[in-house]
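Can't paste images in this forum, so I'm doing it all in text. The chain is below; anyone willing to post the predicted structure tokens underneath?
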Amino acid sequence: MRAFKFVIPIMLIVGSVSWIMLERNHTEVPEASRLLITIGAIIVSGVISHFLFPKNEGGNQ
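Text version of the structure:
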């Protein structure tokens, strides 16, 4: 349940923001490299947010 509430939305936000930033500020970077950078950012943000958010959403730990 935690994945649908926190991890996936964070991954989508990070992916879209990283793609927009690469499109606007770094146009000299090839599109294939932009895609790989964005995929890496999505994976890293997903892993970090998975471990940062608590497993019990409403209860005391």
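The mean pLDDT is 87. Residues 5 and 29 are 33 Å apart (CA to CA).
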